[in-house]
Amino acid sequence: MPSVLNHRIVRATTAVSLALALLAQTSPTTAPPPPLARDGTPQIFIASDSTAQSYDAARYPQTGWGQMFACALRKGIGLQNRAIGGRSTKSFLAEGRWERLRADLRKGDVVLIQFAHNDANLKPERYAPAETVYRANLERFVTEARAAGATPVLVTPIAQRMFEPGGRTKAGFAAYSAVVRDVAKRERVKVVDLESLSRSWIDRAGAERAKAFYLHLKPEDGFQAFPNGIADDTHLSELGARGAAALVAREYRRLRLPHWQRIDAEVPALLRREPLGRRGCV
Prior knowledge:
This protein is of the alpha/beta class. It is built from 8 helices and 7 strands. The chain has a 5-stranded parallel sheet. A two-stranded antiparallel sheet has the order 6-7. α5 (about 130-145) packs parallel to α6. The longest helix is centred in the first third of the chain and has 24 residues, at about 1-25. The N and C termini lie far apart (about 55 Å). The relative contact order is 0.15.
């Protein structure tokens, strides 16, 4: 019995260590970006966390849906992905990231706002209870984006690859998603319900096949960023980010959000069944 207990302790410690290592790698401390030079082209901004973030080549295959959303854009519309790992509505505000984004907004821009994964984290610098701080922060984002002449769009958090006892994909941040929907209703803001869309997406794929959407890697896969492999059901792979971006793009068009005619959800880059081995749009 002691050997079994020790084995479980070792496994648990290893899992915690892997999670902390990944968190450190996806929570950069870089300052907010410098002011954006504008040329008159309307922009879609993304305010979010590591699930939407753009990553450099060294982090492949980890990819954010916001990074691949760029493949859906036609001429005449730009993308400013301000998503960054480890941020909640609270820390995104505290670090001045929202203020920098807000200052860059112009009339005709769109802001996709997706938080919750880190708002639910009990770390003091991140934690934003759903019904109080999180709600107030979303309301602030909506009000200030509108004041700048932009269109705010709330996005429920993408689902993790986690399941209910009956086998259906779990809504891991249900309380936060409920607040998103309620704020949207009260403020008359459109919602991209990515939580519902991604849960259905995972259910269609099935638990085993959906591993390819997330970071399920073995040491022998040979990825420099994950030499020991990883089993992460939160962060997206290249293939998962492409699929999630397609979900957002389709809903963007269905909702007839500003510049929807310049969004193409059916581009081959977002419909791939196998990874390309890089994050390109061709």
